[in-house]
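Q: Protein A?
A:
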Amino acid sequence: MATTTFSKEEKAAIKAAVAEKKAAQEGADAAAACDAAIAAMTGTDRELAEAFHQLVAENTSLNAKTWYGMPAYTDADGKVVVAFKPGSKFKIRYATLEFQQAANLDDGNLWPVGFALTKLDAAEKKRVADILKAAVGS
C-alpha cells in the first residue's frame, strides 16, 4: 500500500494556513501579513512580488492577505482571486501567478489560471494588469 507524505515545503504551507486562520479569528492585520511575507522574500522572488503587489493595488480593489504563507489577494467576499507563489518556496525555477475560482477568467471550455513569471518589464506589467482587470470584472 502506497503512503502519501508531504514535503517539508508542503508541511510549512499547511502550518502557515493554520496560523493564518487563527490570526484572522484574532483580528490580525491581513495586509500587514502580506507585506511581511513579501519582505521576507529575497532576490527575484521579492522583486517580482513587490511589482505584482503594486500592480494589484493600482488595477484592482482586491484586499491583500497571506494564503498558505504566500501573498494573496481577495475579493469583497474574502475569496482568494490570485496568489503569488515564489519559486523559492517550493524550490522551482520560477515564480507563478495563480488565479483561483473567484477570478472571472472563464473563456469557453479552456482558459489559463496560472502563469510562470521570471521578469516584469513594461509589456508584462501591462499584460498582468489586463489579466487582473479581467479577473475582477473591471
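Q: Protein B?
A:
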Amino acid sequence: MSWIRSLAEQVDLSREAGGWRSESPRAMLDRLLPLAPSMGITRVSNITGLDHIGIPVAMACRPNSMSISVAQGKGVTLDAALTSALMEAAETFYAETAPRDALFSYDEAGAANQALDPLLLPRVRGAGGRVTAVPIWWSVGRDLVRGSTLYVPYDLVHTDYRLQSGAGLSAFQVSTNGLASGASLAEAICHGLAELIERDALSQWLALGREERTRTRLRLDSGLPRSCREVLDMYQAAGVSARVWNITSDVRVPAFLCLISDHDNPYRRTSEGRGSGCHPVREVALLRALTEAAQSRLGIISGGRDDLIAALYKGPYDREQRRDITPEVADFASIPECPTVTLADWIDFQLAALDKAGMATAAVCDLSVEGSGLAVARVVVEGLEGIAYKANYRYGRRLLRRMLERGIAR
C-alpha cells in the first residue's frame, strides 16, 4: 500500500451540499475564522448581492499579500463560499513562506531521480540559459507514488511574487496552479491533482479546432444531477445563459468549462463569466465549473481582485455574437468517472489516469503549519501543461504535439 493511500484511508467523507467532505463548511469556517488575523486577513465578505443570480460568492482580503490581495470563494451555500474564500487566502499565505531547501542544477541531481525534470514542467518564453544546467533553488517534496524524497523547483512552490530566481526572471510559470488546502493533507493533495489536470485539460481543449470544440458542447436539457440542475435553474431565472463543454482530456478525469453571459441586458457590458472544474466524480466537476463561472463574473463586477485588466470592462457588446447556436451533443452520463466515493480511491483514480496518459511522476510539498488546523499542499506533475492562455507561456510537449497535428507552429 502506498503512503498516500494509507494517509487517505484515514479520512472519512460524508455527503454535503455540493459534494463530499470530511468536515462540513460550517465546521471549517468555525476553525478558520479565529486564525484569519494571524494570516493577515482583514475582511471576509459576502458579495453575492452585487449580482442578481444568487449563487453564493465570497471574498477574503489580505492587503499585505505577496501575491493576490483578494481571494474569492464559491459554493452552493454561503458557508461553503465563505470557507472557500478563507482557504484560498490561507493557501497563498502559507505558500509565501515555502522553504528554499537546496541550490543546485538539475543536471547535477536529475540522473539520480532526485528532482523533477524542468523540461517537463510549465515554463515561460524568453527565459535565458539552459534550465537544466543553471543552479536554481529547490524545495523538498515527496514522490506521490513511491514516497521517496523528490525535489521541486522552488518557483513552482512559493507565492512570493516579489522574488526573482538568480539574476533574471524565473524560467517557470509562477502561479497557484496545484496549490490546494483541505481539512487533511490527503484532501489537499486530491484537490491539487484535480486542479492540475483541469488546467491541462483546458489548455488541450483550447488548442482544438473550432469544429472539434463544438462536438464537446454538453447537453443540459436532461440527465444532470439535481445539484447541477438547481444551479442552472438559478441562471435561467436570472436571465443568464449558461453554456458548458466537456473538456475532459486524454487523462480521463472529468473536467468541464462553463461560460455565462447576459444576452438581453444592454447595460451589462463586462466580459463573460468563465468557470472550469475537475474531479474524479463528474457531478462535483460540473458543479465546480458552474459555480466558478458565477464567481468569475462577480470578480469582474466587484472589481476586487488586483489582477483584473481594463479589457474585461471595455469589450464590445454584440448580442448576436454572444448567442451561441452550436448544438449540444455531449452526454453527461457517458463521461467516465471514479465508481467509488472514498478519498483514497479518488487519489488512486487520478494517479492511475495520469500514469496511463504517460505522466507517472508527481510530487507534493507539504506546506501545512502544525497546529493551524488546515492542511496546505503544493502538487506538481511532470508533463502536464500549465496555464497555456497566458501570453508568455511556453508550450510543453503535449501542446506542441497538438499544434503540429493541426499544422500550427509556435
